[in-house]
C-alpha cells in the first residue's frame, strides 16, 4: 500500500507543479482586465462618462473622442451582473453619464447561467478583485478552464488579440483584418437567440439596481442599441424582440430618467463600418462615438434651457 501511494505521489506532484507554473505564467500575460482595473483604481473619481456593456460597446465606443474624463469599461460577453458590480466597485464621484447596451441579446445572457460563457467570470475574480465568487472557487484558477487557457495562449501569438487603448476601447475589430465571410448575420443572430426567460427576469433585477444607483446620484443613463447589418436583423427572432420591447417599456415607465437610443438600423452606417454582422470596426466606432457625443451634448443643452 505504501509503495502504491508513493507511486501516486510521484505522478501527482509533477502534475501539480506544472499546473502551478502554468497558472503563474498565465496570470502574468498581458491582460486588459488587469489594465482596466488598475486604471479605474487610479482615475475613477475623475470619470464623467462611463461605458459599460459587452463587445458591441467595447469595440463600438471610442471613449478617447469623448474627452479625457471618459472611459470604456465594457468587455466581451460582459453581462448585466458585472455591469452592476463594476458600477458599485469603484468610487465614481464625478460620474454624470452612464452608457449601457440594450440590444437584441444582452438581456438574455448571464455568464454563470450559461455553461459555454461562465469562463469569462474568471477575468473579474482574478484581475478585478471581484468578490462575487470566493477565492477558493474555480473562477480563481485559469488553468482549470481549457478554453480560457487556449484563448490566453492565442494572446501570446497574435499581437492584435485582447487589446484596448488607454481609455478602454477595444482596438482589435479592424476593417483590415475582418474575414471574407464577415457578414455572418444568420449565424450571429441565431447563436444569440434564447428562450430562458428566467435569465431575462434575473437581468431585469440587475438593471433595476443599476438604475436605482444612478437615480440616487443624479447620473444620466443612456441605453444604447448599436448598429447591426441588415443580414443580422433579418434573422432576429420576433419573439425575443417583442420581449425586449416589453421589458424596455416597463423599465422606462418605472425609471423615466433613463433614455433609449436605438441605432440598430441607422442608415448612416454602411458595410464599410462593420467588422462582422453586429460589431463595428474602427471607422464605424469613430462614427458611432461622434453621433453619441453630439447626442449627449444636445440633450445636455436642452435640459439646461
Layout of helices and strands:
Elements: H1 2-27, H2 32-43, E1 49-51, H3 55-60, E2 70-72, H4 80-89, E3 97-101, H5 122-127, H6 146-157, H7 185-191, H8 197-217, E4 220-225, H9 230-234, H10 238-254, E5 258-262, E6 274-276, E7 279-280, H11 282-303
Helix pairs in contact: 4-8
Commentary on this structure:
With 305 residues, the chain is an alpha/beta fold. The protein contains eleven helices and seven strands. The strands form two sheets. The protein has a five-stranded parallel beta sheet. Strand 6 and strand 7 form a beta hairpin. It is globular and about 80 Å long. The model has no long low-confidence stretch (mean pLDDT 90).
Low-confidence stretches: none
Distance between the termini: 85 Å
Strand-pairing-aware structural class: alpha/beta
Strands side by side in the biggest sheet = 2-1-3-4-5
User: Percent range for helical residues?
Assistant: 40-55%
The count of DSSP E runs of length 2 or more, i.e. the number of strands, is 7
Which series of helices and strands comes N to C? Answer: HHEHEHEHHHHEHHEEEH
What portion of the residues fall into strands of 2 or more residues?
Answer: 5-15%
Cα radius of gyration in angstroms = 21 Å
Q: What is the count of DSSP helices, taking H or I runs of 4+ residues?
A: 11
